[in-house]
Amino acid sequence: MVRKNRLATALTYAFLCAAALVDIIPFVWMILSSLKPQSEIFSFPPSLLPRQFTLRNYTAAWNAGGLNFARMFMNSMIVAVPATSLCILSSSLAAFAFARIRFSGRDFLFMCFVSAIMMPTMMVMIPTFLLMRPFIDTFVPLIARVMFGLPFVVFLFRQFFMTIPRELDDAALVDGYSKLRIWWSIIMPLSKPVVATLVVFVFQQVYNDFLYPLIFINSKSNFTVQLGLASFRGIYATRYDLLMAASVFTLVPILALFVAAQRYFVEGVVMTGLKG
C-alpha cells in the first residue's frame, strides 16, 4: 500500500513537472530569441541558445522609431491601476450583498449576473463603442468597462465571503456596526488571499488587453504597451527580434505583481471554491 502511494505520488509529480516544462518552453524561447539577431531566430537547423549573443534588441526596441515605450508603460499603468482598484472595490461590494445580505430574489439575480460570464465579448463591443463614443482617444472607456465589476470577480469574491462565519456579522451588528462597516472592517481584512488573487487576475486582464485599446485609442501618445508591441508587425515583415525583446520588458509589471502577491495567491485560488 505504501509503495502504491509512493508510486502514485511520483507519477503525479512527474506529470506536473512535464506540464510545467511544456508551459515554460514558450517563455524561455521568447527570452532566448530576444538575445538573437533577426536572421538567427528562424535559422535552420534551429538552435535554442543564441550563437551571436546581443543585447541591442532591447535598446533598439525601447528606442524604436515613432514609439515611446516609457510613455506607453505610463499609459498602461494609468489604465490598469485605477481600473483594477475600482473593479476590486465594486465587485467586493456586490459579492458582499450576494453572500451576506438576505433579500428577495438574491440567488436568481446572482445567477443572472454570473451568466454574463458566458457572454462573448463581441456581443457587447458595438454597444460599448456607441456608449463610449464621446470619449474616443481617451483612457475613460478602458477604465469604465471594468470599474463597475466583472462577473468572474464577483463570483470568486462571493465564494470566498461565504466561507467566513456569519457569527462575525452578528457580533458586529450587536456592537452597532453597519453593513458597510462590516464589509470594510471585518470581511475585507479577512479576504486578503482572494483580494491578492483577483488583483493579479484583473490587472493582467486590463494590462494585456489589446482589443479595446485598438478600438478606442487613435493617437500614438495614448498607446498602451500592447499597441506598441503590435507596431513591430508590419505589412510585409515582422521584426521578431525587437518584438521578443519588447515582450520581455513588458512582462516585468505582471511578474513583479505576481511575486508580491504570491504569499496569498495559492491560498486565494484554493479557498474560493470551498463553499457554494
Task: Output the CATH class name.
Answer: Mainly Alpha
Number of helices: 15
Integer average pLDDT: 87
> What series of H and E elements makes up the topology?
HHHHHHHHHHHHHHH
- By DSSP, the count of extended strands is 0
What is the CATH T-level topology? MetI-like fold
Count the domains: 1
User: Biggest β-sheet: count, sense, barrel?
Assistant: none
**Rg calculated over all Cα atoms:** 23 Å
Content-based structural category: mainly alpha
Low-confidence stretches: none
Cα(first) to Cα(last) distance is 35 Å
Helix percentage: 55-70%
Provide keyphrases for this structure:
15 helices; MetI-like fold; single chain; mainly alpha; 276 residues; globular
List the helices and strands and how they pair.
Elements: H1 2-33, H2 38-41, H3 56-62, H4 69-100, H5 106-114, H6 121-132, H7 140-147, H8 151-161, H9 167-174, H10 179-187, H11 192-207, H12 211-216, H13 225-230, H14 240-250, H15 252-271
Structure, described:
This protein is mainly α. Helices cover 69% and strands 0% of the residues. The chain is built from 15 helices and no strands. Helix 4 packs across helix 11. It is globular and about 70 Å long.
Short summary of the structure?
The protein is built from 15 helices and no strands. With 276 residues, the chain is an all-alpha fold.
